Amino acid sequence: MERVTAATTPKLRLDDLDAEQAAAVRAPRGPVCVLAGAGTGKTRTITHRIAHLVSAGHVRADQVLAVTFTARAAGELRNRLRELGLGGDAGQVQARTFHAAALRQLKYFWPQVIGDVPWRLIDSKFPIVAQAARGNGLSTDTDSLRDLTSEIEWAKGSLIAPEDYAAEAARLHRDAPYEASKVAAVYAGYEAAKITPDGLYLDFDDLLLHTAAALEDNVAVAEEFRGRYRCFVVDEYQDVTPLQQRVLDAWLGERDDLTVVGDANQTIYSFTGASPAFLLDFSRRFPEATVVRLERDYRSTPQVVSLANRVIGAARGRIAGTRLQLIGQRPDGAEPVFAEFDDEPAEAAGVARAVGKLLGNGVPAAEIAILYRINAQSEAYEQALTEAGIPYQVRGGEGFFNRPEVRQAVQALRQAHARDDIPDARGANLVTLVRAVLRSKAGLTKEEPVGAQARERWASLMALVQLTEELAAQHVAADTEAAGESVVGAAGDSDEDDQHPTAPGSHHPADESGLDLTGLLRELATRSEARHPPTVQGVTLASLHAAKGLEWDAVFLVGLADGTLPIQHVLGPDGTVSDETALEEERRLLYVGVTRAREHLQLSWALARSAGRKGRRRRSRFLAGLVPDDSPASRIAQHTTDRRGPKRVLPGCRICGRPLLNTQATMLGRCSRCPADIDNGLLEALKDWRREKADELSLPHFVVFSDTTLTAIAEQRPADDRALVAIPGIGAKKLQTYGADVLAIVRARSNASD
Ligand code: ATP
Ligand code: MG
Questions:
Q1: 182 a known binding residue?
Q2: What is the average pLDDT value for the chain, to the nearest integer?
Q3: Does ligand 1 have an atom closer than 6 angstroms to the CB of 219?
Q4: CATH topology of domain 328-399+531-627
Q5: Max Cα separation, the chain?
Q6: Any residues with CB less than 8 A from the CB of 222 and at least 6 apart, and which?
Q7: Protein residue whose Cα sits closest to atom 31 of ligand 1
């Protein structure tokens, strides 16, 4: 990416653009539409176009309004404008979300339009929707309210009034939480309840509606506004809702100074009412528009680009008809890796290992992302990264243990634990008990509920049940392991746990066999406390929806099993497709995911949800024909998939030789129960050195080496380069940068103790 220092005048560099991009940038004032695939420089083109229009004197910087859809995307726009010398100060280009722009305008125009009626922006629709639901005899539980709320948001985004809702919902086959007439009644009740004698309550959609109306109905307001803003730019235009389009039309009036860029094949927000039709019909609406198509992909290696082309090549329907073959412009890179795992924990551990390897090779953590379909999938990855000592941040959502439904569920388990009439359930019985508590106290249902929000919540609760199953199974495994150890006499002092803290999820002594509720709650607490606080320099965990428009050097697309991507509810009970349109949106999500990667891309899936289960899943139907026969996926499958038992080819413990079962153990090269032959003095010396080094290079400490890697060094005391790179987390780049220092410290320490 180019780096241009900020200045007060635009620093336009037309050499940084290819011929088509330059054509869009140089097009005269008037409508311009860039229709292009991922990574072809659409965002770059609009920022340069703004710089061009300003430097050529067509428009003043403060007369430009650039809008997009999410706060993160608006931030990205501002950053890129800043690089072109169009900083975010007053008197500069405004780059905002639709909502933020509307809020500012409405504040300004309200007195003129509405007078002195006070108004307030509501923080949450929930209480008002609840009131309306109650008034219509509907449930006010959280799931029901969330689904009603998203249905109201969809209707408002689609400019469907309460009285038209029922007809439109039927026409569009909405997957609504209740009968359409009931939803319509709640919607009408919700709208009415916001008008009170003390003033008006507005939600985010009302901001847009009122802004449009202020300009449509008031000549003076429209004139003042249109005198102020003359040039409009929209990024990610495929995601515009009819409501946002109406605002845009109101801004424009009769004018046509509008540049839009988008990729219909990245439409992934249809559930909010967004539609690519506005993008695709742009040149019909503005026949004189300059229309540019971009095909060169500057973001990704040709290997990634080729996979992206094949993923979207299989798409069907009108949107798919608009796709263009992307042509990779970067030097060759590695082929995308496909990896199949026995179960989800193994997948997460495998991904964490691969992330550790990249970090060891010098790829910065902030340049690595793990992307999944739904937020509940983050749990396994948060855990695996925590165990590996790798910092991360969860984007566009909270970490697993901070989600309201998970907190509520854990609280319910604690309360159950405090009661004395709860049976002493262990092992499989504990799983049954947990399910029962979550059913009665946290609203876990047997079947997956209807509605996006309820599904997310349900998936989080199911993830907690699954975690219980895994912990119970691990507990049995650890007991067996402990028994084996006492036979060979390798370890086993009763105070071993104190001397060598065990990894989360491993054995805790119990006087009877099987994990019980006390043990489970302790495990959950340990896990949630062990989680790293969010750090911007960590690996990104994000849903595919939150990843749009962004890019990373390395991307891991995980959970690519049928039923996760595509998500279950677009499939019929027997795996047939129940909703073609929705299936195509799922395919576009995979396309968005693939195209986030600059260089490294790994796609993985698991055959079973949890360890020890029969592998009934199959990889995503979108991968059909894409996984090469000689792919490591086949090799991994051969190694790890033995339906008859837990025979796996996994790295072994350097002390007892048994397979290593979790990421931290793999990084340390020994299982948690084997004695840690650590030289604590050496560990301290290494940490001191790391602190100085990190400060000197202005890097966060973990970027130099993670705690786990330093621990592994202090345990294994490598004597030469070869021994050093054998430690996970240390690759060629780290060896080159820090190898000599580290080996000198190890040597000095062993000389001192000789
Ligand atoms: P998306 O559809 O994912 O939003 P996009 O079309 O907006 O992608 P950009 O993010 O603008 O693409 O560009 C992708 C990457 O390619 C960026 O890192 C950008 O700086 C780089 N790039 C774009 N055009 C060029 C060019 N002409 N020369 C060199 N690099 C370029
Ligand atoms: Mg973009």
A1: no
A2: 82
A3: no
A4: Rossmann fold (3.40.50)
A5: 89
A6: 215, 216, 250, 253
A7: 298
